[in-house]
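Students often ask why inverse folding is considered easier than folding. One informal answer: many sequences map to the same fold, so there is more than one right answer. In these notes we will look at a single instance of the problem. The structure comes first.
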């Protein structure tokens, strides 16, 4: 069943409306912009439009908070783009660009019924979110953790003002799993990829740093993909690993 149908089923059983209220996404800046040291957040009166490729799913990204710009080269993130037919959204080294973001900074304004999810294996806690209409990636959540944040795909940001996008993203703070990429990552720099030994420490450092800030300003909720007040996802993700060639 689709996420939308699942939400309506819960609502019909007496639960509160599960319509997602907010969401945060990203887009990689140009190579020229990435060499410039930029502020890591927009000003409080700025916001970014969010949209899938065909425009059927849209939203806004609040300008009130900061996040961490990360690039992941793991085979799972690459498989996600392969499954969706969006390999062109990866960079030349197979990197997938995300922004670690507060859930409460995202708001969907159109096409919530076209949002769906999947997992690459039965046991993984990582859930991938995308649009049914044009298979645009939205981002990823970890269902085994409290819904304190979301890794949002930069390709979902639809702003034409690249300087504004760059201010939202800031510089890349972390490159993960470069040694497992299907492409050559030996020339990666600025910053250099985190080692397989220490990537988790680096990731958790950024997660804790920002989640405390998000908690302080009340931006941890509502989470667009979790039932309000709990860890339950708004819909059950399909398992699609076997469908990837």
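Output (designed amino acids):
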């Amino acid at each position: 069943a689709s996420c939308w149908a699942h939400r309506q089923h819960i609502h019909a059983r007496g639960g509160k409306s599960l319509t997602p209220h907010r969401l945060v996404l990203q887009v990689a800046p140009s190579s020229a912009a990435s060499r410039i040291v930029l502020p890591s957040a927009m000003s409080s009166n700025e916001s970014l439009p969010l949209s899938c490729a065909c425009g059927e799913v849209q939203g806004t990204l609040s300008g009130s908070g900061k996040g961490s710009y990360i690039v992941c080269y793991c085979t799972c993130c690459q498989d996600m783009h392969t499954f969706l037919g969006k390999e062109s959204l990866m960079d030349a080294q197979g990197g997938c660009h995300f922004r670690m973001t507060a859930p409460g900074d995202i708001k969907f304004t159109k096409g919530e019924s076209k949002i769906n999810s999947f997992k690459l294996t039965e046991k993984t806690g990582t859930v991938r979110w995308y649009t049914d209409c044009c298979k645009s990636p939205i981002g990823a959540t970890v269902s085994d953790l409290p819904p304190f944040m979301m890794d949002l795909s930069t390709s979902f940001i639809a702003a034409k003002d690249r300087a504004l996008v760059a201010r939202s993203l800031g510089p890349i703070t972390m490159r993960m799993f470069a040694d497992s990429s299907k492409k050559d990552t030996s020339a990666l720099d600025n910053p250099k990829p985190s080692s397989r030994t220490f990537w988790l420490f680096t990731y958790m450092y950024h997660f804790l740093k920002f989640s405390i800030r998000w908690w302080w300003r009340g931006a941890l909720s509502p989470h667009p993909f979790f039932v309000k007040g709990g860890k339950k996802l708004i819909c059950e993700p399909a398992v699609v690993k076997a469908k990837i060639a």
